[in-house]
Specification:
The complex is a heterodimer. Chain A is an alpha/beta fold. Chain A has ten helices and twelve strands. In chain A, the strands form three sheets. Chain A has a six-stranded mixed sheet with strand order 7-6-5-8-9-12, with helices on both faces. In chain A, strands 1-2-4-3 form a four-stranded antiparallel sheet. Chain A starts with a helix and ends with a helix. Chain B is an alpha+beta fold. In chain B, strands 16-15-17-18-24-23-22-20 form an eight-stranded mixed sheet. A five-stranded mixed sheet of chain B has the order 5-4-3-6-7, with helices on both faces. In chain B, a hairpin with a 3-residue loop joins strand 4 and strand 5. Chain B is elongated. About 3% of the residues of chain B have low confidence. Classes of the chains: A alpha/beta, B alpha+beta. At the A-B interface, strand 10, strand 11 and helix 9 of A face strand 1, helix 3 and helix 4 of B. Strand 10 of chain A pairs parallel with strand 1 of chain B.
């Protein structure tokens, strides 16, 4: 039993999550209780459509009654019941290791909560990080029994090597080509611009959610005096003398940054949500994510 | 250096000091040692800094608010070292006493910039208090007829100012000597009434207190006996020399000389202006206009005006000065332009004559006119032992008791007139010989008599022959009435509020065999009834009227409480009713006579008597500050005042001193330092 599993998924949150399910706008039009229907026709008991037989079709699906009536070979199509692919991509760069709680910890909690929702509805849940190697697939989790595995997996995530957002996303896209829901939890603090990374996601036929996670220290910096700011990832140095105009300028820059990210995402049909590490997970899920339509 | 700056440092010190501001600037422009701080990303910070670098010079200045504050601080310190200041005034001494005259004349309005002299004096004193250093202590004493400690020694300037503003003008005369005595007593080391005095100061080391006397100098010089050892007096004259003032100096009522049944009011107006004045004297009875008369008053003189009063008039008489249109001499003191007199019921007094039988006296006291003045009762000397007499004499039932050829054991509560005997008080006995044969003067020749005495008004004693008489030497305070060849043979002397008159010679004597004999031919002269009428008029009740009209503000008056009255009340001129509890005796002292005007003594709604309180003080009314001519410059200056043997010049009341501002500058620098500390700690930015 992971020691800090309760940290990631507190019991009181579980009760709330039980009632939620993941929603996607792209892939499914309707739903059945406990399962999801795929657009792909396939092997199920639910009739979907007819179509003319083409060579190669499984002759078991030919509707012989129609053949008798119409003298044509018509194939019955059935809806294929398919489970939902739910991907969570966590930015595990060093910059996420800041804040109280750290942004990474917050991201892990959020991933655990969303993953639990998916597992509870027997969706396929896959949790990956940006620094994960190209060939290194994350395990697919399915079913309630996998909750503990998921938590163990999350628990093992540590701030790793800094990988550019674009590279991390690109690797992810190469690894996972299927459809589904993707939740990217990142602070988007990429000096080589986050846009490229997000563009990769656009090309993926996924329902993408970007949760832009910033710590309170970034949103409302509480700094004084003459400082030498050291970037934890690339050791870049910024010398500042804190003053009211500088703080005002920082706020404006932050505002522009957040606003720019939001606009960039919404132009490309990506759901964007700015999250503060001080907002309780419970609140974030039941208020913000619900409003965005990720869960209901 | 200049008038405004003084150098305090040498050249090399200045040079060193001049290096400080560049040093501060240099330190600020040196590369800062910044504190490293790891942040998630410098991404946003760098972008923010890029924007700011656009106007970096101004940013630099704004960020260096602390540097500017330090430069200003150093600038202030340098400025303080130049000791900027200017010639100002400074107080002498380390203990101050402000003696503030609040007598009647201080209400004169002859000062510029203040409503009256007292306000001016208060303003001056306030200026002194404002200049006081925090280690100075001051005391305020107001003085008029009696001094009053307004505030004891304190260094609390706010308290001093508060108490100072509370000093009110009074209607009293001025007595500096008691004020000096009080101040000297309080300032003396032995009785230092210091409230916050430092015990460490040994009392002998206390220097004399600087005493500022704010006054118009209208007082008697302080007599030689008064010392001012612990005081260092400085006289600050208030007011101007030639302030014009006219005053009513006497208001009285009297019986007309020509028509005895008519009463007259007598008003005297004094002119203290440099020109002759024509004024209108207006007389009102109980507020109703009665009469008016014009009076021409020469410079420095007093002119009396007589008004007939209606028969049986009773009430409060008010005399006012009015000026004809256009001739207003700008009288600066309003308080003395009004005078009061009380006209009481001329109820007949009660007179008791204790006599073994005296036909001339009897005849003189029962004339119609005498009866109008007094009710006279005759009793034999034997009645002196009765309880009824003792009771009456102690209760003051009678206004006058005449002892003819007898004397009581104890003096009564009444005016007395002794004929041929001396009063039984030690004063009289000690001054006169016992009425023995040796002390008797046989056939004294009258040399002179006191014509000024009201008792002897119109009394001609030139051709009186007296067989024998006693020596009558009055006790202290008394006056000799008749001086004979061998010595005084008649005298009058005050006793408490009464008067005792002694005629040393009997009018009618008794021979050895008991037969009445004539001792003098006086009864045959016109002077005899005149004397007795005078005696009745002045001793049987009218003396009181006289006394009442001359009461000065603040002086006590003895009021007679009738036997049947439990509680009296006095209605003051401003309408207050002051109840008077009767004491064991039949007389009570009433001393709340601060306000000029006519007071009514009431028993229930009935007015028993009235008395008037008047300023009537020529010293106060002559209000110009006493001038003296400067011998060198031929200019007038306020006269010196004399305290004891010391002449105190009406000095310029300030001593020059330099007003330094370096303390203020350093205080500013200190507050800047506090501000800088605050900015540094609380990160206040422009």
């Amino acid at each position: 039993m992971p020691i800090n599993s309760t940290n990631l998924l507190p019991p009181e949150l579980l009760a709330r999550l039980e009632r939620l399910e993941l929603v996607t706008r792209k892939v499914f039009r309707g739903r059945m209780k406990g399962e999801r229907r795929s657009h792909r026709k396939g092997q199920s008991v639910e009739f979907a459509d007819f179509r003319a037989y083409a060579p190669g079709d499984d002759i078991r699906s030919i509707d012989w009654n129609l053949y008798a009536r119409l003298d044509k070979l018509i194939v019955k199509l059935f809806l294929e019941e398919e489970d939902l692919h739910f991907y969570i991509l966590i930015d595990d760069s060093r910059s996420m290791d800041f804040g109280q709680p750290t942004k990474l910890q917050y991201a892990k909690q959020l991933a655990a909560a969303l993953g639990f929702v998916g597992l509870a509805r027997t969706d396929r849940v896959r949790i990956e990080t940006l620094s994960q190697g190209l060939r290194k697939h994350g395990p697919v989790l399915r079913g309630r029994k996998s909750v503990w595995r998921m938590l163990e997996l999350l628990d093992a995530i540590e701030p790793g090597d800094s990988v550019a957002l674009a590279d991390g996303v690109k690797n992810f896209c190469l690894r996972n080509t299927g459809r589904g829901i993707l939740v990217l939890i990142s602070d988007l603090m990429d000096k080589s611009s986050y846009e490229a990374g997000i563009r990769y996601l656009v090309s993926q036929r996924m329902d993408v959610y970007v949760i832009h996670l910033l710590s309170q220290e970034e949103l409302e910096p509480d700094v004084k005096g003459d400082l030498k700011l050291v970037d934890c990832e690339d050791q870049d140095i910024a010398e500042i003398s804190v003053s009211a105009p500088l703080l005002a300028r920082y706020k404006a820059t932050l505002h522009a940054f957040v606003g720019g990210a939001q606009e960039f995402c919404s132009r490309r049909g990506i759901n964007y949500l700015l999250a503060n590490n001080q907002t309780p997970i419970k609140e974030l899920i039941s208020n913000y994510l619900r409003r965005r339509g990720l869960v209901r | 250096m200049t008038e405004y700056f003084r150098n305090t440092l040498s050249l090399w010190q200045w040079g060193l000091l001049a290096l400080v501001p560049p040093a501060i600037i240099a330190l600020y422009f040196l590369k800062l040692r910044r504190q490293p701080l790891e942040v998630p990303s410098t991404y946003l910070w760098n972008r923010s800094l890029e924007d700011l670098h656009v106007n970096s010079l101004w940013q630099q200045l704004r960020q260096n608010l602390l540097m500017f504050l330090q430069l200003v601080l150093v600038g202030l310190a340098i400025f303080a070292l130049l000791r900027p200041g200017w010639e100002g005034t400074r107080l002498k001494g380390d203990r101050l006493i402000f003696l503030i005259d609040n007598s009647a004349s201080m209400a004169a309005t002859d000062v510029d910039g203040a409503s009256n002299r007292l306000a001016e004096a208060k303003q001056l004193a306030k200026g002194f208090i404002d200049q006081m250093d925090s280690n100075l202590m001051a005391m305020i004493i107001s003085f008029s007829e009696s001094p009053q400690v307004v505030q004891e020694f304190t260094s609390n300037r706010r308290l001093l100012r508060e108490r100072l503003s509370g000093i009110q003008p009074s209607a009293h005369g001025t007595d500096l000597s008691s004020a000096i005595k009080l101040a000297s007593g309080l300032a003396s080391p032995g009785r230092g009434a210091t409230t916050e005095s430092d015990e460490a100061i040994t009392r002998a080391e206390l220097p004399p207190a600087t005493t500022y006397i704010f006054s118009d100098g209208r007082f008697e010089d302080v007599a030689g006996g008064v010392t001012s050892d612990y005081l260092q007096p400085i006289y600050v004259p208030v007011g101007s020399f030639d302030s014009p003032n006219l005053a009513i100096t006497v208001v009285s009522t009297r019986t007309s000389e020509e028509r005895p049944d008519e009463r007259q009011a007598f008003v005297e107006v004094s002119n203290f202006t440099p020109q002759p004045q024509r004024v209108i004297v207006e007389l009102a009875l109980d507020g109703q206009f009665l009469d008016a008369a014009e009076a021409d008053v020469p410079v420095g003189e007093a002119v009396g005006t007589v008004f007939p009063l209606p028969v049986g008039a009773v009430g409060a008489l008010t005399a006012r000065l009015k000026y004809q249109l256009g001739s207003d001499p700008r009288d600066v003191l309003a308080a003395d332009d009004i005078g009061y007199a009380a006209i009481n019921d001329t109820a007949t007094g009660r007179v008791l004559v204790v006599t073994p039988g005296n036909i001339p006296l009897n005849t003189a006291l029962v004339t119609e006119r005498a009866r109008r003045l007094a009710n006279t009762e005759f009793v034999p000397p034997a009645s002196l032992d009765t309880a009824a007499y003792r009771n009456d004499s102690e209760n003051g039932t009678y206004d006058l008791i005449i002892y003819d050829q007898c004397a009581p054991v104890q003096m009564p509560r009444a005016n007395t007139l002794f004929i041929g005997r001396l009063p039984p008080t030690p004063d009289w006995i000690a001054n006169s010989e016992q009425p023995t044969v040796e002390a008797m003067v046989v056939g004294p020749q009258i040399l002179d008599w006191n014509r000024a005495s009201p008792l002897l008004a119109h009394v001609e004693l030139g051709d009186i022959v007296i067989a024998e008489s006693l020596f009558v030497q009055p006790p202290a305070g008394g006056d000799v009435l008749i001086e004979a060849t061998a010595g005084p043979i008649a005298a009058v002397a005050p006793r408490d509020s009464y008067q005792d008159v002694v005629l040393g010679f009997e009018i009618v004597g008794t021979s050895a065999d008991g037969a009445p004999t004539a001792n003098t031919n006086w009864p045959l002269r016109q002077a005899f009834p005149t004397f007795w009428l005078n005696a009745l008029e002045h001793l049987a009740g009218h003396g009181e009227v006289q006394q009442a009209n001359n009461l000065r503000p603040g002086r006590p008056i003895e009021l007679h409480v009738p036997a049947n009255a439990q509680q009296l009340s006095v209605l003051t001129p401003d309408g207050r009713t002051i109840p008077i509890e009767r004491s064991r005796q039949n007389f009570v002292r009433f001393s709340e006579t601060q306000q000029p005007g006519v007071y009514q003594v009431r028993l229930g709604d009935q007015v028993l008597r009235r008395f008037a309180v008047n300023l009537f003080d020529r010293t106060e009314s002559e209000i110009g500050v006493k001038p003296t001519q400067d011998s060198d410059s031929q200019t007038l200056r306020p006269a010196d005042i004399r305290i004891g043997e010391v002449e105190i010049a009406a000095s310029s009341h300030r001593t020059p001193g330099r007003v330094e501002t370096w303390k203020i500058l350093l205080a500013c620098a200190l507050s800047l330092l506090v501000l800088e500390w605050y900015i540094y700690n609380r990160r206040v930015y422009l």
